[in-house]
TrEMBL record:
Lineage of origin: Bacteria, Pseudomonadati, Pseudomonadota, Gammaproteobacteria, Candidatus Kentrum
Superkingdom of this protein's organism: Bacteria
Record organism: Candidatus Kentrum sp. LFY
Protein name: Uncharacterized protein
Amino acid sequence: MGETVKYGTIFVKNGFAHWSGDSSVQFEVCESGSEFCELEGIWNPNNDVIHNKYFNAITGLCIWAKYDCVFKFEPRGKGNPGAVRSLISTEHQKNLFRRLKNGHKIEKILISETPYGQYQSQLIGWQADSVKRFGIKKLWYALPFDEYMVTIKELERFLPPKCVHQISHKLHIHYNMLKEKIKNTIDAQLEFIHPMRLDNISVEESYMWPYQNLEADLGIEEIQEIRIPYQTMKTGSMIPPILLGLLGMPVPYYSPREETSYDCLIP
């Protein structure tokens, strides 16, 4: 029996990946041909015929990884250095706002100087290689600027307006920098999509919107993002085959930046 490798919410053993969100979701993985990705596989819940070439595809990228925007709370006493929270997930965001509502004070906010961390660089590189490999001509690309702004606007209840403006300004800069890098790296007709500007929908609904509304031949996702097409499928939508990439160990999305690579905001 082979060793089990844990990659966030994904477990890999004996050449098969399993998702912790639903034990019935599993698919074969093998070594990736891209230098930016370690393993990849196709989740194909509808048993579609897998082709060597596809005309169009859906993909996306989180603007900030776990340590790209970090909220450090003041120490709560001797031996308690203070909590550290990020915008990594709904759970983290709820915990962040719960602490703020309970009167916990933020000591500083650290935002990476550039958006070109290990996660972003590897994922864009793998996406470019995948587009080339499958001959994809049209690529719908989700960069969730509006989704981040929903959370940032909620911070206005707890932080000075100047501080919130600095966070949103930095997000806007990083969004534009990533957009340019994507356009310069991926050889396809790119269309950046913003579901929340098209429909009156929630953040979670916006992540599912591309698979519900665009007739894509293929999805290209970092392997933990399998939850998005999975949740979409549960709403009754038909989804295409999903190419999933395990970028490497340790998980790039959770990799910290060097302290010197941050801009520090004091609320």
